[in-house]
Amino acid sequence: MTLVKLRSALRDVLAEMSERHDAAHDLAHFDRVWTHARTIAHGEDFAPSGVLLCAVYLHDLITLPKDHPKRGQSAAMSAVSAGPIMDALGMTPSEIARARHAIEAHSWSGTAVPQSAEARILRDADRLEALGAIGIARCFAVSGALDRPLFDGADPFATARPVDDSRFALDHFAAKLMKLPQGFLTATGRKLAEDRVAVMRRYLSDLARELGVPAPDW
Question: Is the pTM of this model over 0.70?
Answer without folding.
Answer: yes
